[in-house]
Amino acid sequence: MDRYSRQARVSGIGSAGVARIRSANVLIVGCGALGTHLADTLTRAGIGRLDLVDRDVIEWTNLQRQVLFDEADAKKGLPKAVAAAKRLREINRDVAVHGHVEDCSKAFLDGLARKPDLILDGTDNFPTRYLINDWCRQRETPWIYGGAVGAEGASMVIETAGACLRCIWPEAPSQADTGTCETKGILAPTIAAVTAFQAAEALKLIVGAPTTRGVFTCDVWRGAYQLIPVGDEPASDCVCCGLGQHPALDQSQPAAVSMCGRDAVQVLPEGGEPIDLKALALSIADAVDDLEQTPYLTRFRVDETRITVFPGGRALIFGCSDPLRARALYDRWLR
Hints:
Blueprint: H1 5-8, H2 14-22, E1 25-29, H3 33-45, E2 49-54, H4 71-76, H5 80-91, E3 96-101, H6 106-110, E4 118-121, H7 126-139, E5 143-149, E6 152-158, H8 165-168, H9 175-178, H10 181-184, H11 188-207, E7 215-219, E8 224-228, H12 247-250, E9 256-258, E10 264-267, H13 277-284, E11 289-293, E12 298-302, E13 305-309, E14 315-318, H14 323-334
Parallel strand pairs: 1-2, 1-4, 2-3, 4-5
Antiparallel strand pairs: 5-6, 6-7, 7-8, 9-10, 10-14, 11-12, 12-13, 13-14
Helix pairs in contact: 3-5, 3-11
């Protein structure tokens, strides 16, 4: 029996809809809680090509809600994009899954082998969401915003002709207002509620069905679910829609940036040659603790921090929240 037969029987999909799903190209930004739920659902739906991008590695605290990972992945500290792609290929061999262990930057988006038909937001920070928004606006690509913290979540479809994220939130809300998984925690049912909306809207976009207008919000602890109306027309004073500007595409990435809700800093190399991870491991072996090397990374402990280095020189420094200290550690051990 055709594996998609039950999906094809849904009103509004049919065999033609399944064919469109099978030929669609989707990018998911972030392979955390939102991203793994979305990737699992779309892979089982038979999406044609799925690109995943994530800069992080798997930790024990991820296992409570990030559905594509297991204890062995956390013990190895695998990159999320690598472990997710491997698991998804085991779920559905028909889907072309490509995992990218990178930051989602303008350079990454511009360098994709194929322009996505749709981008799904699985991130945990607004700077990346504004980057997605501006890139999609410039290239007339739809995307679906999603966010969750604690028991509350929200999502919205952003099509090419309607209001964009900047129309609704001209400026990013502060972390003090929104909180993070570190400060407010996160319930797995919150993720499930938000991604159910995102995935359903993604399938509707792909098959050509009308999407839901407005901002979906939920509080799964209180059992409150609602759809907040938004205007169909872009805001005339929106920097993207009204002025035709794309500020996030003009900003350079900071060399060191604290990761949202984490006691960790990402540090990017400042020019020069990529780091040879094997040579690095040999040079520091006698000076650091818990040194490990895999085909994907080299990691070690030093000065009460855990440093993970990826090919190309990008590093995550855990146990440090100060970008200046992180940069100093990077320069001391990796240059």
